[in-house]
Automatic annotation (TrEMBL):
InterPro entries: Metal_Hydrolase, Metallo-hydrolase/TatD-type, TatD-like. This is Metallo-dependent hydrolase. PANTHER family: CUT9-INTERACTING PROTEIN SCN1. It holds the Pfam family TatD_DNase. Residues 109-139, 188-237 are annotated as: Disordered. Signal peptide: none annotated. Residues 206-215 have a biased composition (Polar residues). One of its GO terms (molecular function) is hydrolase activity, acting on ester bonds. It comes from Clohesyomyces aquaticus. Residues 118-139, 216-233 have a biased composition (Basic and acidic residues).
Length: 349
């Protein structure tokens, strides 16, 4: 347990779950208004999930970026139809994002339902998932996964939405797909020598402008804001959810030429293998240290809402604050700002 375990947890500052699946247990949804976690980024993992997430959004969803106004109030389909469905939900819910999507080399297709499986189904679980079925030996081809991911990322780019992605045993492949999205649109990287020269030239220009009358032909700043700017072929923001790569792998995302704003969310469920009582693993510590403060998020990745979700969120926040040497007050505020920027593209409440 982190050393800050005796310090009262500042729920009142606003704590946000960057990735969760409460629609997997729809019977748990009514507990959400009573939870201490303030905001939930609810994910879909299959086609029918989208309608379930939309139903939760109708009842409890965010209506404004200003969180002081928030109220806690088998499925065959052509992929082209699925994308149209996704687009429709994105248009209906302008503050929604795309997720979760990604690549998984270890994924295997579940076995078909058997009479015994049907008889032993858990009625509390939302139908359509694995629901305890055995896994078949059949996997999904990596090329096919990359093609599907690419189409979803293109939709995110077109709609200007953030994305929550996973990469299971596919960290290099995921980075390859993301880099392919912005190929030819990299940020211009200025060397230290060039930056110094530019600063000197700017100081000289400022000195000269102070001795001359202001030109009436200069464009106003508003004219240069680029309101009609061409849409980029890549999503504006991507969160690597429950990031399981190592610190060295993550550093590749910090390439200054990368124009996509990258976030990393961490969970006890995946990153600590549900070990809530043991010592924090060195790999987890190394990743937290390698992620810049403004890129960090926390998540539960839990499949049911309620007290357990709050418990896991508090636990991972405490661990990260200890590693980063933040007070709980400062850490919760930082993480809240990061979540708003990821979800909405702004730090404003």
């Amino acid at each position: 347990m982190p050393e800050n375990g005796d310090e009262a947890f500042p729920w009142d500052l606003g704590v946000f779950d960057a990735h969760c699946h409460p629609t997997d247990t729809m019977s748990s949804i009514p507990t959400m208004p009573a939870m201490r976690t303030k905001g939930f980024t609810v994910m879909a993992t299959r086609a029918q999930d989208q309608e379930l997430v939309a139903n939760v959004a109708e009842q409890y969803g965010v209506r404004s970026r200003d969180d002081s106004k928030w109220e806690k109030d088998e499925y065959p389909m052509p992929f082209s139809s699925f994308l149209l469905q996704t687009r429709g939900f994105l248009e209906k819910y302008p503050l929604s994002l795309i997720g979760e999507i990604g690549l998984d080399r270890s994924f295997r297709i579940p076995e078909p339902w058997t009479p015994d499986d049907e008889q032993n189904r858990d009625g509390d679980l939302t139908s359509g998932g694995r629901e305890g079925r055995r896994l078949s030996p059949w996997r999904v081809d990596s090329k096919h996964q990359k093609a599907i991911l690419g189409l979803q990322l293109q939709l995110a780019a077109e709609m200007g939405r953030a994305v929550s992605v996973h990469g299971v045993s596919a960290h290099g492949m995921l980075l390859e797909v993301i880099k392919g999205m912005y190929a030819g649109h990299e940020k211009k990287v200025v060397s230290r020598r060039q930056r110094k020269k530019m600063e000197q030239e700017a100081r000289g220009a400022n000195s000269e402008s102070q001795s001359q009358p202001e030109s009436t032909n200069d464009k106003s700043r508003n004219d240069d804001r680029g309101d009609g700017e061409e849409k980029k072929p890549y999503p504006p923001r991507i969160c690597l959810h429950s990031y399981s790569g190592d610190a060295a792998n993550f550093k590749q995302y910090l390439n200054p030429a990368n124009p996509i704003e990258i976030f990393v969310s961490l969970s006890t469920a995946i990153n600590l293998s549900d070990d809530l009582e043991g010592e924090t693993k060195k790999e987890f510590v190394d990743v937290v240290k390698s992620v810049p403060d403004h890129m960090l998020l926390v998540e539960s990745d839990l499949h049911t809402a309620g007290e357990e979700m709050d418990k896991r969120i508090e636990d991972v926040v405490r661990r990260i604050c200890k590693i980063k040497a933040w007070s709980l007050h400062d850490g919760v505020k930082r993480l809240g700002v990061n979540w708003r920027r990821f979800a909405f593209g702004t730090e404003q409440q």
